[in-house]
Backbone:
């Protein structure tokens, strides 16, 4: 049995080195494949029971491992839809189907972020998988990311906010306040805000701040288009809305943080002023924004580090469309690899969980970059030479066993 065992062991060694050479061939072939993770072979001994006075040679077992957790170098491109993950995590992709839906609900994981828009506005990578993410409605359900090509309908403004500081050292107004509509008018500070009517027409609002005593400010809102030429006062129709902001001795707002009125040509509008302060510094507006929009088409998209996809419209406005989802597993190196440079959960990888970028220890999204493979060609060539020499040595073991078998068979002749 020793000669048979010797030959069997030689075959085992050749098979093991053949597996090693197969991974080397794959690694070299995919050295330029975006997001590819190199494979390697781990060897372990295979022992057989050895009775007294004899030795049964065993062999070698091989286990293929993929270095999925090892990140490749980032290569920067000129396409905003080329995406890379700087850190841990995987893109979540599905097989695309008709009408922007998925052909099935299987979630595949990949680091290959060479996404482009297809005819239906879907972001698909070079292997044809569609990128998944979250909608901006706050839902945790994964949805296919589809960039709309149609024009955005106009939307009237309903909510707005303004934040800043009102100077505590300003003198109270002693003349006519803007809300009185009586000329001449005195006020302390003025700012403006852009809103939209029902048909998407932009409208500028003038907002006056008038200090009435040490802690009270009157706020008056006017339609800028209704100002008398050479004005600004009087405004046709008077103030759209008025309110009072009251601050305590520390400069913090105590009442009057919201002002409601109707936008001409639009609907009810609520202006949030709760983030104003009254400190010793001068008048300043640190934040001003309102919802609503005119009808326009998407000019380009932008993708933030947290995976939020923003659409920039032809009117200059921006809006969040989706947030790219990232997947995580406990043991990435034990995922099961499939064709198309994707992975699925295996019994040894742990459960797949979904998160947003820059959260729960996951990496950030890099727009305009791709992750190269983590293959080192020099190392692979070295492994190839070592595997070739080991294969040859094992073949010599088998050949020697075969020659000895011939000697044993010829003994009876």
Residues:
């Amino acid at each position: 049995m020793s000669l048979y065992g010797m030959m069997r062991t030689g075959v085992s060694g050749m098979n093991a080195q053949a597996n090693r050479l197969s991974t080397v061939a794959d690694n070299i072939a995919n050295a330029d494949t975006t997001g590819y993770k190199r494979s390697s072979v781990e060897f372990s001994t295979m022992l057989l029971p050895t009775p007294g006075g004899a030795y049964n040679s065993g062999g070698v077992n091989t286990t293929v491992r993929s270095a999925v957790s090892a990140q490749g170098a980032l290569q920067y491109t000129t396409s905003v839809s080329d995406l890379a993950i700087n850190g841990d995590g995987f893109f979540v992709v599905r097989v695309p189907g008709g009408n922007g839906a998925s052909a099935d609900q299987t979630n595949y994981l990949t680091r290959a972020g060479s996404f482009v828009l297809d005819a239906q506005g879907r972001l698909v990578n070079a292997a044809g998988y569609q990128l998944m993410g979250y909608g901006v409605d706050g839902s945790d359900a994964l949805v296919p990311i589809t960039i709309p090509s149609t024009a955005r309908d106009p939307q009237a403004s309903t909510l707005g906010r303004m934040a800043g500081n009102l100077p505590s050292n300003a003198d109270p107004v002693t003349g006519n306040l803007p809300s009185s509509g009586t000329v001449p008018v005195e006020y302390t500070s003025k700012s403006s805000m852009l809103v939209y009517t029902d048909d998407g027409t932009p409208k500028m609002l003038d907002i006056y701040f008038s200090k009435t005593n040490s802690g009270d400010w009157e706020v008056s809102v006017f339609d800028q288009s209704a100002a008398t030429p050479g004005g600004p006062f009087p405004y046709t129709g008077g103030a759209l809305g008025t309110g009072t902001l009251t601050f305590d001795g520390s400069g913090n707002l105590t009442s009057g943080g919201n002002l409601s009125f109707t936008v001409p040509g639009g609907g009810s509008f609520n202006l949030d002023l709760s983030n104003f302060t009254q400190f010793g510094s001068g008048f300043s507006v640190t934040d001003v924004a309102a919802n609503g929009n005119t009808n326009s088409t998407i000019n380009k998209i932008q993708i933030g580090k947290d995976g939020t996809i923003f659409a920039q419209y032809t009117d200059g406005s921006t809006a969040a469309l989706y947030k790219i989802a990232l997947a995580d597993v406990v043991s990435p190196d034990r995922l099961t690899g499939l064709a198309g440079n994707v992975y699925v959960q295996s019994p040894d990888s742990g459960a797949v969980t979904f998160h947003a970028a820059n959260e729960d220890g996951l990496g950030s999204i890099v727009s305009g970059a791709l992750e190269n493979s983590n293959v080192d060609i020099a190392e692979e060539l070295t492994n190839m030479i070592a595997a070739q020499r080991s294969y040859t040595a094992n073949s010599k073991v088998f050949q020697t066993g075969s020659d000895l078998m011939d000697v044993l068979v010829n003994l009876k002749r």
Notes: Helices lie at 2-29, 377-410. The two ends are 21 Å apart (CA to CA). Residues 377-410 form the longest helix (34 residues). The first strand starts at residue 39 and ends at 46.
